[in-house]
């Protein structure tokens, strides 16, 4: 027995780079009983059917049609995985792997073609009802996001997330969604990655690509938070009898200090507060992170502005937004080294943060230019979330590895190492993480990278009329991994 234990200790410390060999052994081989495994997708990335059965146009339909060169490969999501017609194939794939959760998003313009409640597209409502029923029939729990970036173009035409009225439009949309699916769906995400949504306003990274850096991004973020707050309070008022749990899915690259110097540690902390904290602080604690308020106010004043570029909430809004998450949706792909310094457009959120970021050259690359493999970052992030927000119930709502269809074995390594760090966060740091929905079940439309960058554990033949789904090695790896865990559940 002793020899066996010693061998296990050695294996664990070796596979973890030997950075901590004081770990208890058994606890690190398996997740706790009840831990849930699943996978994620987003409407625009998989559905296709861009104008099917009365769907309205989204900002992604529009930008990819008006500016095909917005996508590096000149591709678009018109057909994608055709999940609008083939959702049963997706559920089959989830079931084959043994997934217990499926996190997907609802396309706002598929339900409300012009964004507003006065025109409801019944086939759109039916589509998600069928998907939810198919999942439940297969014992797969849905986690549903109301917004994963595909804003109705009709709402963008009146300012999109820059228009304060959008909070009310979002509330109306949420009302319809909760009313329609609330008895079947218990896990909700209002906004997926608000920090990415704002980059559509503050840069050219995503639709609507307005590039209003340092102004439009703060304003969009402000209205995203107001919209989230309204949707949450609405659920409390009208739908609490359904017993659902609401969250946002938070994101950012985890910011690791580049050195032990206090100014670099402070820069990494600012980096955290300007990404995860920007949205998590208001919904957990009320109002923006104090450091964010201080930096943007100071710079705005120095620029001769009499109003801060970071808008102020009214007290009523703070109260509405404060305490509006029942769980923490944690998206993690990568980390960045962060040190003190000034760079970035003037003005911009990057410049306001006063940091310089880079990737450690030792971190392995992926097919995505923004993802390096840094498994330890997810543990640091989980611990930070625990400390900042009182150890909320947490589900990792995205985590995944991209290749060009050529490095699926490295994908397995990515998941192995990240799952190991999540177990450490649970057992060593006491983080309340109860599940993971990986990105992604199937290869799909990877935004500006089109279909050439693949995150799926299931391959999709985009050239076949049926978009044939084929399990990759990583899918079989997950199948075994989950089956092993089901033995203890
Ligand atoms: C894109 O949106 C603009 C503004 O609504 C509209 O005028 C235009 O026709 C749309 N273009 C396409 C190709 O969808
Ligand atoms: C948010 O709510 C908590 C708990 O009620 C309270 O302690 C805190 O002061 C509120 N935050 C703000 C900014 O009002
Ligand atoms: C800021 O300055 C503008 C233009 O000078 C003025 O119209 C506005 O009233 C000022 N706002 C505040 C809050 O002082
Ligand atoms: C596509 O699916 C249809 C219906 O399931 C089937 O009849 C057909 O043979 C499939 N085609 C290919 C090329 O696999």
Strand order of the largest sheet: 1-2-3-4-5-7-10-11
Instruction: Count the domains.
Output: 1
Radius of gyration: 22 Å
Number of strands: 13
Keywords: Glycoprotein, Glycosidase, Hydrolase
GO molecular function: beta-glucosidase activity
Family: Belongs to the glycosyl hydrolase 1 family.
Subunit structure: Homodimer.
Properties at a glance:
489 residues, alpha/beta, TIM Barrel, eight-stranded parallel beta barrel, three-stranded mixed β-sheet, 19 helices, 13 strands, 43% helix, 13% strand, disordered N terminus, binds 2-acetamido-2-deoxy-beta-D-glucopyranose, Beta-glucosidase, glycosidase, GH
Describe the structure.
- The protein is an alpha/beta fold and 489 residues long.
- The protein has a single domain, classed as Glycosidases (TIM Barrel).
- The protein has 19 helices and 13 strands.
- The chain has an 8-stranded parallel barrel, surrounded by 4 helices. It has a 3-stranded mixed β-sheet with strand order 6-8-9.
- A hairpin with an 8-residue loop joins strand 12 and strand 13.
- Helix 18 packs parallel to helix 19 (473-486).
- The radius of gyration is 22 Å and the shape is globular.
- The chain starts with a helix and ends with a helix.
- The site of one 2-acetamido-2-deoxy-beta-D-glucopyranose has 3 residues, from loops.
What is the gist of this entry?
The protein has helices spanning 2-15, 43-46, 59-66, 83-97, 108-111, 122-137, 153-156, 166-181, 194-197, 199-202, 216-239, 262-273, 276-285, 290-302, 315-321, 349-353, 376-389, 408-427, 473-486, and strands at residues 36-40, 101-105, 141-147, 187-192, 245-250, 254-257, 328-331, 335-340, 355-358, 394-398, 433-439, 458-460, 469-471. It has 489 residues and is of the alpha/beta class.
């Amino acid at each position: 027995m002793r020899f066996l234990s010693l061998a296990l200790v050695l294996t664990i410390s070796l596979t973890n780079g030997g950075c901590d060999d004081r770990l208890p052994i058994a606890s690190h081989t398996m997740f706790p009983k009840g831990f849930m495994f699943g996978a994620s997708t987003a409407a625009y990335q998989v559905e296709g059917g861009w104008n099917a059965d009365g769907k309205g146009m989204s900002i992604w339909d529009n930008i990819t049609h008006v500016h095909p060169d917005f996508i590096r490969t000149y591709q678009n999501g018109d057909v994608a995985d055709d999940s609008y017609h083939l959702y049963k194939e997706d559920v089959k794939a989830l079931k084959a792997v043994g997934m217990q959760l499926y996190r997907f998003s609802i396309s706002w313009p598929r339900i409300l073609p012009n964004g507003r409640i006065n025109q409801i597209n019944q086939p759109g409502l039916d589509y998600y009802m069928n998907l939810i029923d198919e999942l439940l029939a297969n014992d797969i729990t849905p986690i549903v996001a109301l917004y994963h970036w595909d804003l109705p173009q009709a709402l963008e035409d009146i300012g999109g997330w820059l228009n304060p009225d959008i909070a009310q439009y979002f509330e109306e949309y949420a009302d319809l969604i909760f009313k329609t699916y609330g008895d079947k769906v218990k896990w909700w995400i209002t906004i997926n990655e608000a920090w990415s949504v704002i980059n559509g306003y503050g840069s050219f990274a995503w639709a609507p690509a307005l590039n209003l850096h340092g102004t439009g991004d703060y304003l969009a973020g402000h209205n995203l938070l107001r919209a989230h707050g309204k949707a949450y309070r609405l659920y409390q008022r009208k739908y609490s009898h359904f017993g659902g749990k609401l969250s946002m899915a938070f994101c950012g690259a985890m910011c690791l200090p580049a050195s032990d110097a206090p100014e670099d540690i402070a820069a990494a902390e600012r980096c955290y507060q300007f990404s995860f904290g920007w949205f998590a602080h208001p919904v957990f604690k009320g109002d923006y992170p104090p450091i964010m308020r201080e930096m943007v106010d100071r710079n705005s004043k120095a620029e001769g502005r009499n109003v801060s570029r970071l808008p102020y909430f009214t007290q009523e809004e703070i109260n509405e937004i404060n305490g509006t998450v029942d769980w923490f949706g944690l998206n993690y792909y990568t980390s960045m080294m962060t040190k003190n310094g000034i760079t970035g457009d003037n003005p911009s959120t990057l410049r306001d943060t006063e940091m310089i970021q880079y990737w450690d050259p030792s971190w392995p690359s992926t097919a995505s230019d923004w993802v390096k493999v840094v498994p330890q970052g997810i543990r640091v992030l989980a611990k930070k979330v625990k400390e900042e927000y009182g150890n909320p119930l947490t589900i990792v709502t995205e985590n995944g590895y991209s290749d060009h269809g050529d490095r699926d074995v490295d994908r397995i390594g990515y998941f192995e190492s990240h799952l190991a760090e999540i177990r450490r966060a649970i057992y060593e740091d006491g983080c309340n993480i109860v599940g993971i929905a990986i990105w992604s079940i199937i290869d799909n439309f990877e935004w500006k990278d089109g279909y050439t960058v693949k995150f799926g554990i299931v391959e999709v033949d985009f050239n076949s009329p049926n978009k044939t789904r084929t399990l990759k090695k990583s899918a079989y790896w997950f199948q075994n991994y989950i089956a092993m865990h089901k033995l203890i559940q």
